[in-house]
Amino acid sequence: MNGSEVSPERRTPAAVLWDMDGTIVDTEEYWTQAAEEIVRAWVPGGHPRLANTLVGMSLPDGAAALQRLGVPLSIDEIVQAQLQLVIEKVTRHGLVWRPGARELLAELNSAGTPLALVTMSFQAFTELVVAALPENTFAALVSGDLVEHGKPHAEPYLVAARMLGVEPGDCVAIEDSPIGLESARAAGVSTIGVACYVNLDGSDADALWSTLLGRGLEDLRLPLE
Q1: CB under 8 Å to 170, separation ≥6 — which residues?
Q2: Is the bond into 152 cis (omega within 30 degrees of 0)?
Q3: Could you tell me if 107 and 217 are in contact, meaning their C-beta atoms sit under 8 angstroms apart?
Q4: Cβ(18)–Cβ(115) under 8 Å?
Q5: Looking at the chain, which runs of residues are DSSP E strands?
Q6: pLDDT in tens, 138-181
Q7: What residues pair up with 209 in beta bridges, in sequence order?
Q8: How far is it, in rounded angstroms, from Cα 79 to Cα 72?
Q9: Dihedral (CA of 64, 66, 71, 73) sign
């Protein structure tokens, strides 16, 4: 090509698959606070390095981590306690939306791009967020209690693609955590990382954005293979 660099041809994704906590709503801190409250109730002095280590992790995996710190409850008991604490915090303080998230969701809906929510939050909490968005924002919902293997396993993203009737390789995932990015990549989905509480520098994302503000469908176009 006469030594000049040629940009790859790009195509519109068949679907966009969204993480929720830390990507659409600024709720990661609520989950961390809830985990810390549970640990402090059972472990003297708590655990000062707990913050952010659970970001993106499935609730059962996170509960197992709390057990290893000394919380003497079953996985289900820890999950339900954490879930209830987070629901109480959202009910009391409301939802805080990540910058540009609702605007991008609205643009993609207007363009007819299928959207799926792929979150490790359980359905009881997911429904609170979905209910605060325009009706039928998402064509598919995959929550942590609907899959056998949570992130970083590929299953959540594979299930979302199957529910939408699209190939994972034709999709784009938007995530805020290394665990979530690993899950999407394992499923063969192209990834965009938008950091919230965890630094994503050095992650294996196809693109890293500082914010969703000002982003649109054109920014999500995939290079052809």
Answers
A1: 13, 14, 15, 222
A2: yes
A3: yes
A4: yes
A5: 10-11, 15-18, 115-118, 140-142, 171-175, 190-194, 207-209, 222-223
A6: 999 999 999 999 999 999 999 999 999 999 999 999 999 999 99
A7: 194
A8: 13
A9: negative
